[in-house]
Write a structure and sequence with these properties.
This protein is α+β, with helices and mostly antiparallel strands and about 230 residues long. The chain is built from 6 helices and 7 strands. The longest helix has 29 residues. It binds flavin mononucleotide. Flavin mononucleotide (FMN) binds next to loops. The site of flavin mononucleotide (FMN) has 8 residues, from loops.
């Protein structure tokens, strides 16, 4: 009887351990992706990047590496993160749809700039749905990842709503240009896109009722002489 109890306790611990391990694995390995701190650096000057920068819509099917994605995402907050009193908290959100990035499972993530990590969003998103949300742009299917910039208007302090909204759009514009420059420096291709069905993009990527999509940026390895 005592042996039976001991065995029951042992198996109880065994099962509990298994459950905890699964939670740990899902929570820390699958749901949160820590981006590399030492990301890659380009070798050209800002002026060269400004001249080289152009919108690229043709990508090879190759994966990009996490260091490249980390550098692009870091660029979004290098100069764009200082928030004003009018727009407290993080002034815009960046979601990342991963299609083909080495060692990062495909899916939708929210980018946390303070911790330089991606947090998985519990939404099922597939490339055909994205293509259906962006009319006439089926070339995005070969992009390795897609950045989705959104503004959460519910976070704007009421007396300065108009100004807060403008401020958030300016910050997103700065972040977009930084991604363009970083992509040029790393020999990656990207383009900013505003022509999409708002409701479909919102449904695919966002959750807050007052969170609005502002623009998308597919990213990938450019085809030779791509435009
Ligand atoms: C605000 C804005 C919205 C844009 N929206 C789209 C878009 O929906 N689809 C697209 O293919 N390109 C879009 N573009 C990219 C422009 O077409 C591109 O910047 C223009 O062709 C100039 O080329 P360049 O960026 O190589 O100088 C947009 C650009 C800006 C600035």
């Amino acid at each position: 009887m005592r042996a039976l109890t001991r065995r029951t306790v042992f198996f109880g611990f065994f099962i509990l351990g298994g459950i905890l391990l699964k939670v740990f694995w899902q929570g820390f390995v699958h749901d949160v992706v820590r981006l590399p701190k030492h990301f890659v650096h380009g070798t050209i000057t800002v002026e060269e990047a400004l001249w080289k920068r152009r919108s690229i819509r043709m990508y090879t099917d190759e994966a990009i590496v996490p260091q490249e994605l980390a550098a692009l995402l870091k660029a979004t907050h290098n100069t764009a993160s200082a928030d004003s009193v009018m727009y407290p908290g993080q002034s815009f959100n960046i979601f990342v749809y991963i299609r083909h990035v080495q060692n990062i499972p495909a899916g939708l993530y929210h980018y946390c700039s303070e911790k330089q990590e991606l947090r998985r969003v519990n939404k099922k998103v597939a490339m055909p749905d994205i293509i259906a949300a962006v009319p006439g742009r089926d070339w995005i299917r070969k992009s390795a990842a897609m950045l989705i910039f959104s503004a959460d208007y519910s976070r704007i302090a009421v007396p300065s709503w108009e100004r807060g909204m403008r401020s958030s759009h300016i910050k997103i514009g700065k972040a977009v240009q930084n991604v363009y420059l970083e992509a040029a420096s790393l020999n990656l291709g990207t383009v900013v896109m505003m022509a999409f069905y708002d409701d479909r993009v919102k449904q695919l990527f966002l959750s807050g009722s007052r969170e609005e999509p502002v623009c998308l940026m597919p990213v990938g390895k450019p085809l030779k002489d791509a435009r």
